Amino acid sequence: MLLSKTTVDVRYAETDQMGVVYHANYLVWFEIGRTVYIEDLGFQYAQMEQDGVLSPVTEAHVHYKKPLRYPDRATISTWVAAYNGVKVHYHYEIHNEKGELCLTGSTVHVCVDKDTFRPLSLKKHFPQWHAAYEQHKKQEC
C-alpha cells in the first residue's frame, strides 16, 4: 500500500471566528493530498483531464478529532483504501506538528467522460493507472 504525505501551513484566512480551521478547508486539503498521491504514483491528474476524463467526488466524509489553528502545520496522509476499476475510495488522516491525529476522512471518486459524464473504466482508458491502483489498494470497493 502506498501512503503519501504532504504538509500544509494553516493560513489565518483558513480559520473561522473561533480561531480553528474552517471545516470546508479540509476538503481542499484532501484534494492536495490526493494530487500528491497521484503524482507519487507517477501520474498527473491534469493529463487525465486533457485526455477527456474527469474524476468527480461522489461522496465525502470528515471526522473531526482535534482542532488545527493558525499557524499550525498539518501533515496530510493519503492512500487508496479501495478500488474496483471504476470507483476509487481515498482515505486521509491529518496530524498536527506534535503528531496528534486531528482529522480522518474519505472521498469516493468515479472517472467519467468529460462531455457525457458517463462512468469510464480506468482499466480500459488508463491501464497503467489501473495497474498502480490495483497494486497499492487495500481492498475491493
Automatic annotation (TrEMBL):
Keyword Hydrolase in annotation: yes
Protein name: Thioesterase family protein
Domain of life: Bacteria
Annotated keywords: Hydrolase
Keyword Hydrolase included in the entry's annotation: yes
Entry-linked Pfam families: 4HBT_2
Record-linked NCBIfam families: YbgC/FadM family acyl-CoA thioesterase
UniProt source species: Fictibacillus macauensis ZFHKF-1
Family: Belongs to the 4-hydroxybenzoyl-CoA thioesterase family.
Matches recorded under InterPro entries: 4-hydroxybenzoyl-CoA_TE, HotDog_dom_sf, YbgC/YbaW
GO molecular function, one term: fatty acyl-CoA hydrolase activity
Annotated PANTHER family: 4-HYDROXYBENZOYL-COA THIOESTERASE FAMILY MEMBER, NOVEL THIOESTERASE SUPERFAMILY DOMAIN AND SAPOSIN A-TYPE DOMAIN CONTAINING PROTEIN (0610012H03RIK)
